[in-house]
Amino acid sequence: MTPDARRSGSHLATLAHEGRIWEAYLDFETDSLRTDTYRARLRFDAADGAGPYHTGVIIIEESFERAVSTARAFDERQLSALLRSVLPSEPPA
Length: 93
Hints:
alpha+beta; five-stranded antiparallel beta sheet; elongated
């Protein structure tokens, strides 16, 4: 794996969701059994300090560049849906 593949925290977008500003990042993960792939998850951090919240590994590509391209192809609606999927649910009232 190249040094670039180990780099994490590539900024993808800034989102507004439920009154908070969120930053979305691409974080790479090393898999010692699958060194021929670049695996990444999304991380969401709120400007007010909430988070981080992570998706599971949702990007698996054959190159670092392709993994970044795949992540950058998500539009705001898709990123918002992924953010909602990782936020803790409110306890029932």
